[in-house]
Structures are given as structure tokens and as C-alpha cells.
User: Which sequence fits this backbone?
């Protein structure tokens, strides 16, 4: 008996719903609005990013470029970033961390003020008639030691007590050099562990203030090397917009009553003498800050505005080995 096979039946496919013309138009309008807004946001971010990362040529002069960076073929024109610039802040942190490492090995820190460039970065400094490095109690005394080997120290560095001053205060001493000493192999000299320098140069093209912070040290071959640095340009700024680079707070017992009142104001340390150092801040355009008003009867009046000019303040003991960790 032959069985018949069931016949297959054909069914039309189910209808799949699609977009109507109105829905497509709404989707297209929404997409157009989204991409227009995204383009405007991207343009705004790009313009802001360009402003925050302005970079270009600055004329500081051949003398400054050669002295700062050792470029013997310098033409006096360098490339630098404009403030505000957040990327340069990373270099500030590197330099600060290196300073803290150096302080762990340094026996003395001597900050000297100057108006021009510094050509004295020796490996060691003769003690002369000084019996012990501990007798070098002031920055001015260290200046005298430098002059034993090179009398130009008296021309390069000025004298000060407490407050070095800015361009319009106590002369033109507007730049700074910090010598970090360490006990040497010779009984008649001290070695230099490192030299830190802060320079502020008023540029004419374009008009503004160029700040350079550097560290120098000698390598194993006794060759001076620029190991760390950062720089930043403040468009339209002058030296007076920056304020003091550092102040020296001496032990209160050094006040013998004979010094001027201006000097006595800075002899207030209860323990060892120390410095307050302000590194130029790449993030803060110094022309935009509002300087607070303070009384002139205390030392804070000389540097109170530094709190709004820079976030990079360092408290550095004059004799790190004799000072508890800060």
C-alpha cells in the first residue's frame, strides 16, 4: 500500500515593521543637531587648548641663553611655552623632588641674590681662614668665601639681610643662586653638591617675563651639567609682577639690636635659619592675580602676595643636617 506524502503548504512571510517617513525625518534632524553641537564643542575645546599651550619664539638675548643652557651657538632666541601651561608643572615637580633629595645630603644652603647672570659654579669653595664650614653662618659670609678663589663674586652677587628685594626695592637684585654644600675630602674646602638658579628676564619680543629655573651639578668626569630645568613665559608681565624669589628668615638670637628695623623683621626663626623660596608657577599668569593688602609692620608684608602668584613654595633649611625634617 502506497502512502501519500503530505503536501507542503506555502505561507507568506510575516510583515516586518519599518520606519515611517516622519520617524526618518525626526532621526535625521536629531542626528544633525547632535553633530552640530559636537562640532561646536570640539571647536571650543580646540581653541581653549591652543590658548593653554601657546608656544613660540622669545628673544632673551645671547648672554642669557648661553649662560642658562650652555649653547655656544646661541642667537638669543629660544622657544618656550606661555602661561598658563599645565604640562610644565610636571617639570616643576621633578625639580622640586630633586631639591628634596639634595637636601638630604647637603650640609649648607646659601642663597645669593644678583642682577645679571652667574658665571660661578665651582666644584668646591676654599675655606680660607675659616676653621669650619659651620662658621659660615650667613649668605654674605659664603659670598666672601667665593671671592677667595674668584673676586668676581663681589660683582656678580649682592649683599642682603632677610629680604633680597625686587627690582624696585633695594636695587636690581632680582635673580637668585642657591649653593648646596657638602663636606669635602679637603680640610681647607667644601664641595658643592649642586647649584640651583632662578632667573627672570624681561623680554622685548614679545613683551613679557621669561622665567627659568635650573639645577647644575658636576658629573663623574668633573664636567658641569645642566641636570634639570623648566621655563615659562608670562606674556605682558614685568619683573614687578613676580614679587620676591626668596626670603631668608634668620634665628632670632642673631638680632643684636644694632641692625636696621628692616633687617630685624626677618630675624624671627625660633630654631635654625631657613629660606622661603617661590618657584615661578607655569599655571598662574601673574598679570591676572589680585594682590592682597597687608600691614608693613611684619615680614609677611614683603611676600604675602606670593600666595596668589605661585603654588610652588619651598621651605628650605639653611643647615639641613642640623634641622629636623620639615
Assistant:
Amino acid at each position: 500500500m502506497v502512502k501519500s506524502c503530505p503536501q507542503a503548504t506555502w505561507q507568506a512571510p510575516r510583515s516586518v515593521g519599518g520606519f515611517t517617513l516622519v520617524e526618518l525625518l525626526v532621526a535625521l534632524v536629531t542626528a544633525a543637531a547632535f553633530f552640530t553641537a559636537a562640532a561646536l564643542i570640539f571647536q571650543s575645546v580646540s581653541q581653549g587648548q591652543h590658548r593653554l599651550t601657546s608656544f613660540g619664539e622669545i628673544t632673551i638675548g645671547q648672554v642669557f641663553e648661553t649662560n642658562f643652557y650652555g649653547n655656544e651657538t646661541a642667537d638669543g632666541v629660544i622657544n618656550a611655552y606661555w602661561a598658563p601651561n599645565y604640562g610644565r608643572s610636571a617639570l616643576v615637580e621633578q625639580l622640586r623632588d630633586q631639591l628634596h633629595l639634595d637636601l638630604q645630603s647637603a650640609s649648607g644652603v646659601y642663597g645669593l641674590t644678583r642682577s645679571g647672570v652667574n658665571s660661578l659654579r665651582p666644584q668646591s669653595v676654599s675655606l680660607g681662614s675659616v676653621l669650619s664650614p659651620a662658621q659660615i653662618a650667613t649668605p654674605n659670609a659664603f659670598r666672601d668665601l667665593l671671592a677667595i678663589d674668584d673676586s668676581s663674586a663681589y660683582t656678580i652677587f649682592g649683599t642682603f639681610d632677610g629680604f633680597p628685594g625686587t627690582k624696585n626695592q633695594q636695587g636690581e637684585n632680582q635673580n637668585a643662586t642657591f649653593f648646596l654644600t657638602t663636606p669635602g675630602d679637603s680640610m681647607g674646602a667644601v664641595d658643592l653638591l649642586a647649584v640651583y638658579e632662578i632667573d627672570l628676564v624681561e623680554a622685548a619680543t614679545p613683551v613679557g617675563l621669561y622665567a627659568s629655573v635650573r639645577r647644575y651639578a658636576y658629573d663623574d668626569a668633573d664636567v658641569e651639567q645642566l641636570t634639570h630645568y623648566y621655563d615659562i613665559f608670562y606674556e605682558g608681565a614685568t619683573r614687578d609682577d613676580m614679587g620676591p624669589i626668596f626670603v631668608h628668615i634668620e634665628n632670632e638670637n642673631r638680632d643684636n639690636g644694632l641692625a636696621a628695623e628692616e633687617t630685624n623683621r626677618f630675624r624671627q626663626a625660633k630654631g635654625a635659619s631657613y629660606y622661603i623660596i617661590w618657584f615661578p608657577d607655569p599655571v598662574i599668569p601673574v598679570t591676572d592675580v589680585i594682590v592682597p593688602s597687608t600691614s608693613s609692620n611684619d615680614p609677611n608684608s614683603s611676600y604675602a602676595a606670593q600666595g596668589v602668584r605661585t603654588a610652588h613654595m619651598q621651605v628650605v633649611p639653611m643647615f639641613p643636617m642640623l634641622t629636623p625634617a620639615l
Summary: The mean pLDDT is 81. The radius of gyration is 31 Å.
